[in-house]
Structures are given as structure tokens and as C-alpha cells.
Specification:
Layout (H helix, E strand, L loop, with lengths): L7 H11 L8 H15 L1 E2 L12 H7 L17 H12 L3 E4 L6 E4 L1 H8 L3 H14 L1
Antiparallel strand pairs: 1-3, 2-3
């Protein structure tokens, strides 16, 4: 078995990335924006597919780091690939859950999982999302 050895410069880079205030890439920032958006009162979802309500898609898209320009008046969730990907991550990370007890089903924040999410540093959040996506 080979032992991995790092130089001091490589150790410095690893430490700097692990302790960075900003997450690597835009996915963690966008996911946090979605979680903040959910934390207010949730998002109405489709009763059959649990996709976000069509009326909320342009607003969600505009909040993201790189909004996708859509020329549709009533685009479906698949028309917004960045929002659709975040929706899948939200469901498979179990940070979001569908509340079907009201008149309209809503995607709400799973407070127990959100508390665990807040304990992670940005790099851990990134790799947690990567793991969820890879598992999917």
C-alpha cells in the first residue's frame, strides 16, 4: 500500500479550501438560496409530481447565481434546468419535504435536517450535495 505524502504548499491549499467562507462553485450558494426561500412558508407544489408551482419558477430562477433566460410565459419546471436540479437535490437530501395537510400541498423545510446542514462548512456542504447527486 502506498502512503500519500503532501508538501507544505499542498497542505496550505487544502487548509485554505476547507476553511474558506465561500463555498466552491455556485451550487451551494444556489441551494442555500432555495433553503432560505423555503424557510418562509414553503412553496406550493403540484399534487401529482411534487414539482414547484409554475407561478414560482421565474421568481426562483431570478434568485439564483446564473439565472436561465426563458422566453416562455408558462414554462414547466423542466424548462428551468437549474431549478429542476435543485429540486432533485432538495428531495434526495431530505432537506425538503412535501406537506400535504393543507388545501394545497407545499414543499417545506425539514427543520431537523436543516439544523444538521447548518453545522457543515461550505466544503462539506458541497461534497454532501455531490454525494446526493452521485447517489441519484
Amino acid at each position: 500500500m502506498t502512503t500519500l505524502s503532501l508538501t507544505d504548499a499542498e497542505r496550505t491549499v487544502f487548509a485554505r479550501v476547507a476553511n474558506a467562507d465561500a463555498p466552491p462553485g455556485a451550487i451551494v450558494r444556489d441551494f442555500d438560496v432555495l433553503l432560505d426561500y423555503l424557510s418562509t412558508d414553503g412553496i406550493p407544489v403540484s399534487p401529482k409530481t411534487s414539482e414547484f408551482a409554475i407561478a414560482r419558477l421565474p421568481e426562483l430562477n431570478a434568485l439564483l447565481t446564473h439565472p436561465v433566460p426563458i422566453g416562455l410565459h408558462r414554462g414547466k419546471q423542466t424548462s428551468y434546468p437549474n431549478v429542476a436540479g435543485l429540486h432533485l437535490l432538495l428531495r434526495f437530501s431530505r432537506l425538503g419535504k412535501v406537506d400535504r395537510f393543507g388545501t394545497t400541498p407545499r414543499m417545506i423545510l425539514n427543520t431537523e435536517m436543516a439544523a444538521k446542514w447548518q453545522l457543515l462548512n461550505p466544503t462539506e456542504r458541497y461534497f454532501s450535495l455531490l454525494d446526493r447527486w452521485w447517489s441519484f
